[in-house]
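Hi Y.,

Following your request, here is the sequence exactly as I used it, all 269 residues.
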Amino acid sequence: MAAKAGKDTRLANRRGVQSIDIGMRILEALAASDEALPLKAISESVGMASSNVHRYLASFVRAGLLRQDPDSSRYDLGRLALRIGLAALSRIDILEMAKPELKRLAHDSGLLGIASVFGDQGPTIVRLQQSSPPVILTLALGTVLPLLRSPSGLVFLAYMPEETTREMVERELVQGSRYMLTPSTPRTPEEVARTAANIRKAGFAINDVDVSPGLRAIACPILDLQANVVAVLSLTGPDPTLGPDHPALHDLAAVCRRLSEEAGYRPSR
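Below is the corresponding structure, written out as tokens. Let me know if you'd prefer a different format.
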């Protein structure tokens, strides 16, 4: 008898509390919307009768999770929801979350994984994840990447405010004659602007690596709540097929989308 009771308790714990599960569906419907919603829309979204949904909404309003507009009667997220969301975001370490993802990407693709952030001097490598066999590259932790001659730099260029990158871009355009540039490297202000726009549209950068001839690389951004780029993940290797249809790019882009969502990013509709 005691054993049966214990088993029932374990099953109940795994099932959770049904009313909370339903309440979370209601909150998720509001979080996924770009605007406040009327009762009917919320009911249709969660597939429940309006009378049942209304009881949950009333409780959430009293708790501060939701608020109701007195004129339109529409519901939206409230102050408590905002506090919970901001608290969660403040505890997220995106680079730490990216660590196992970068390791898996390097293992699955056979390419070198690189994580970089934008430091005082520009795009700076903060994590390297070797593949097997290793990709030989003359880069190390702390290396500052060029904006125009590396896919990671180009992603930062595309997503950062122009006033932040203008001086670096001007300097690299002047110094471009010192390097053997690949055809994909922008050489004029017009090409820089066009390249940045194309990267924002595509969501990734891909080209030959000027800083390491013979290699190709792909890079994608991790964006935060305000669509600011907080880090860039890239994969690099001597693979001439590394292009828009390569499985490694699809995998990298999916990882960066998930990490961006963890950081609070929501794509515009």
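The radius of gyration is 24 Å.

Thanks again,
Q.
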